[in-house]
Specification:
Elements lengths: L2 H12 L22 E4 L2 E4 L2 E5 L6 E8 L4 E11 L6 E9 L15 E6 L6 E6 L3 E6 L11 E9 L3 E8 L2 E9 L10 E9 L6 E11 L5
Antiparallel strand pairs: 1-4, 2-3, 3-14, 4-13, 5-10, 5-14, 6-7, 6-13, 7-8, 8-9, 10-11, 11-12
């Protein structure tokens, strides 16, 4: 073998192998690793269904979890209320709650958010309550709430720590889309409570059910 061939073979043998392709990013961390905690009048019907209230005056029920939601997540669940379209009061999803209040209300968001389906005949529709209990979005699209029909709510939440962007859909149709100035006290990266609530009214009443709740971060906290 010539010296040129020897040199070429040596160059080839000293070349490093190509680097392996990058590993895919890990999936976002799950947020539902255990059964939820029941509060007030809530009862598990089966492993995926919770009766939040019976059809009786002035009662509430919650099922909730504790974890770090981060800056970006998606949630979905099915809900129904009935048997009265002129009954009361509401089903809601809550997030970033620092404590569980003694009397849960759909319009009491504390430092977090409430995503509300309100079947009360004066305010029936879908509403969003922001930190400090301000109703920042209301879209009256469903006066038939309370008709004992299962509906699916989907919520998408993203934040850069300055602005929170929220999209809320029911049965695939967008009912709320808004951006809101973030509350500096919101604990994105600390454990907070999140879950589902229901309340029957004082005069008009309804039962309230939820099922097939799912929530996951769409990006992991930094």
């Amino acid at each position: 073998m010539s010296s040129v061939e020897d040199w070429a073979q040596g160059v080839v043998s000293r070349r490093s192998p190509p680097p392996p392709p990058p590993s895919p990013p890990p999936p976002p961390s799950p947020l539902l690793t255990t059964s939820g905690t029941l509060y007030k009048n809530a009862t598990y019907i089966d492993e995926n269904t919770v009766q939040l209230t019976v059809n009786a005056p002035d009662i509430q029920g919650l099922v909730y979890w504790e974890g770090i939601l981060g800056y970006s997540w998606e949630a979905s669940f099915e809900f129904k209320a009935g048997p009265n379209t002129n009954g009361a009061d509401a089903v809601w999803f809550f997030a970033y709650r620092e404590q569980i209040e003694d009397t849960p209300l759909e319009q009491t968001a504390q430092t977090g958010y409430n995503f509300v389906a309100d079947e009360y005949d004066i305010t029936n529709g879908y509403q969003l309550y922001a930190p400090t209990n301000n109703r920042i979005a209301e879209f009256l699209v469903d006066p038939s709430l309370g008709d004992d029909t299962w509906r699916t709510m989907e919520i998408s939440f993203t934040s850069d720590g300055t602005t929170d962007t929220i999209v809320m859909k029911v049965d695939g149709s967008q009912v709320i889309a808004t951006s809101h100035v973030a509350n500096p006290a919101l604990k994105y990266l600390q454990p907070t409570y999140y879950g589902l609530g229901g309340r029957a009214g004082l005069g008009g009443t309804n039962y309230h059910y939820v099922r097939n709740f799912d929530i996951s971060r769409t990006s992991d906290p930094a």
